[in-house]
Design brief:
2 copies of one chain form a homodimer. Chain A is an alpha+beta fold. Chain A is 29% helix and 27% strand. In chain A, strand 7 and strand 8 form a beta hairpin. The interface between A and B is large, with 43 and 43 residues. Chain A binds a DNA duplex through helix 6.
Chain lengths: 253, 253
DNA sequence: ACAATAGTGTCTGTCAGACATTATATG
DNA sequence: CATATAATGTCTGACAGACACTATTGT
């Protein structure tokens, strides 16, 4: 039995030695990332204008091929794409789903692993077009309500909608939008972000109660002075961003 | 501008004509399916014994390469794998996530798109080993509590655990386990299935209330006669299996 | 009648919505 | 002081858990 196991092991080694991946058709496999941020109080998604064929000149979600030498895992590819386009290194980044089929890319059967990221871009003031830190492709922060009707490359319109829907869905029962905030923020600002994502109004008391009582946010001790009563500033509590509340938020009447 | 667009279109066609996918390394991409069913009142997962290298002789989740000619989408590949191993055509089937990396398969950088399926196998009585309808690979329905400590091929132990965790998670706030039931069943049977999956006891009244009041199940009109008071039989209501209840189930004290 | 399982009545606890009220800045 | 926004008090309602109770069969 031991000899047989040894034989199997040697046979497997021989099999792998002879194995040539190029003999087998494998779908094109890519990673795409929908990067969300709040720009001028609007929820925006990062789009890049493709500088190469196919779909040259069209806007698309950042993404591309896996670097088999440099990327240890799919998540590493997603982090790399995010960093290449934004310079951001520690965002909230999560997988949405994979979409694959025969006709979604003119180059053939393809699979994309879709991620979404949340980053704080409120420190950057210029809107719309800017140039990314490590590439010269034109970059566009498109408000999501405009992006839904843009003619994006490949099936990226569909990918974008799926990522947005996932963000909206999780915003109802987690504290995920905290990933879009700066270090310190007021609860009114945070509520506006939730409302921007969900496109509905939320009840102030319930909103504050669930965020404070859950420990998702804690007072920083500072206050923001506006035209009137100063607002307490908060920062992230010691709770994971995708902490699940016992019930979902509803729109107010 | 129109002429330029025409030029771009012709240039894109030329690009695609010249494009040869084999020039570019693309990860091995596969679809794996964790197929769950209740066998003898236990939650089991379908494993097949691999008859080819690599990992020959080890048990693995059913799965394999995409048939680029025959499968229109990833979901089609998953349905095909399920059908090949079980003959089942209309199960609950949903994507869990994709796992990819450089070292998970000895053949090189690989990605697998993981699905899980729920099927009703209670009509089939023989346990353990049987032969699948369309292949001669040995098939094993392994109780999940045994499967978690089996030495599965590749990273399938990890994949299996992720699929199981997803099933457990959704069982707390949806009616997903209905996908494991026969046409008609009693609420006590259904509760046992929930309890088997969650490995905790549930409170009878709350359980019945949420399933009946939500419309997830409706009385079929038949009764099951046992040793004592007959039990009303139910069937699926007109509610999607992944209908989300307002709150999660908890274990009883 | 008894055993055993099916099924219900009803109280409590938790947490979100409603909405009126109080608090505290600036001009 | 007026006004605008911040923040709270407190009632209601939905829904899950607890648990005792009643119902209906076979033996």
């Amino acid at each position: 039995v031991n000899a047989s196991a040894m034989g199997d092991k040697r046979a497997e080694e021989a099999f792998l030695q002879r194995y040539d991946r190029r003999q087998f058709a494998s779908p094109l496999t890519t990673v795409d990332v929908a990067i969300f941020s709040i720009v001028n109080a609007e929820l925006c998604v990062l789009l890049i204008e493709r500088s190469n064929f196919p779909a040259k000149g069209q806007f698309a979600l950042p993404g591309g091929f896996i670097d088999e030498a440099g990327d240890a895992t799919l998540l590493a590819t997603a982090y790399r794409k995010l960093y290449e386009k934004t310079g951001v290194t520690a965002p909230h980044l999560e997988q949405v789903e994979s979409i694959g089929g025969a006709v979604r890319d003119p180059r053939g059967w393809s699979v994309t692993v879709l991620y979404f990221a949340l980053i704080d871009r409120s420190a950057v003031s210029e809107v719309s077009v800017s140039v990314s830190p490590t590439s010269t492709e034109p970059v566009l922060w498109a408000p999501v309500n405009e992006a839904v009707s843009m003619d994006l490359a490949f099936d990226h319109q569909d990918l974008f909608r799926r990522a947005l829907e996932r963000l909206r869905s999780k915003t109802r029962y987690t504290a995920l939008p905290l990933g879009l905030m700066q270090n310190e923020f007021t609860l009114t600002e945070l509520q506006h972000v939730f409302e921007t994502i969900l496109e509905v109004g939320l009840e102030k008391k319930s909103f504050r109660r669930r965020l404070i009582d859950s420990g998702a946010v804690v007072e920083s001790g500072n206050v923001q002075h506006g035209v009137h009563r100063p607002a307490a500033m908060y920062r992230l509590g010691n709770v994971p961003l995708d902490f699940v509340f016992p019930r979902s938020l509803q729109a107010i009447a």
